[in-house]
């Protein structure tokens, strides 16, 4: 039996709800999560000379796999996965549409002992039609996977129950969806975690520490998995 703690968090480029860029707060939240896998959206920095990758690796005691979507403030900006598990392979799937902000999905295989875990991490677009195309792409890449454990997580930008949540709920089973946005008074479940097989998910909850409430505009979403 393998038990894992996983999380997804939109870190808002390290900028908190007070408008301050504070890598130290990001590090404290990652240390609080103490997770084996953390999907990060809006990875970035306001300081081109600051080594955000090393900062996050130290804070999480994990390795960062970064798949940036563009440059912002002279730094890589986009999606990353932090993991303490051996990475067997990783690739990036472009999900951007013409005229819209670039988007992508990270697909990874992680060694969990007797088998491998497929992890798909993403940050979907703001417009419904944009998300529909991106959802279809992600659904197809999951279809092409060989049978085995799958973890799908990220910021799905669904302000109301929409096509993304319905489609993945049908595939993986109904997901518990604690509100994570806005961080000081969360009301909306923008961040989601799905897992296959569904019985592998023991618990899902928002991480509501005092630091997490100010470090970003999203709270982290955490889950305990058992394979």
How is the secondary structure organized here?
Blueprint: E1 3-10, H1 23-33, E2 37-43, H2 52-60, E3 63-72, E4 75-83, E5 87-94, E6 104-111, E7 116-123, H3 128-143, E8 150-155, H4 163-172, E9 191-196, E10 201-206, H5 212-215, E11 221-226
Parallel strand pairs: 1-2, 7-8
Antiparallel strand pairs: 1-11, 2-4, 3-4, 5-6, 6-7, 8-9, 10-11
Helix pairs in contact: 1-2, 3-4
Written overview of the protein:
The strands form two sheets. The chain has a six-stranded mixed sheet, with helices on one face. Helix 1 (23-33) runs parallel beside helix 2 (52-60) and helix 3 (128-143) runs parallel beside helix 4. It starts with a strand and ends with a strand. Helix content is 22%, strand content 36%. The radius of gyration is 16 Å and the shape is globular. With 227 residues, the chain is an alpha+beta fold.
Number of strands: 11
**Low-confidence runs (pLDDT<50, min 5 residues)?**
none
Report mean pLDDT, rounded to a whole number: 95
What is the overall shape? globular
- Biggest sheet layout: 6 strands, mixed
- Please identify the structural class as seen in this structure: alpha+beta
Rg (C-alpha, Å): 16 Å
Element pattern in H and E: EHEHEEEEEHEHEEHE
For the largest sheet, list the strands in their spatial order: 3-4-2-1-11-10
Query: Counting H and I runs of at least 4 residues, what is the number of helices?
Result: 5
Helix content: 10-25%
- For the record, give the distance between the C-alpha atoms at the N and C termini, rounded to a whole number: 6 Å
Q: Which range does the strand content fall in? A: 35-45%
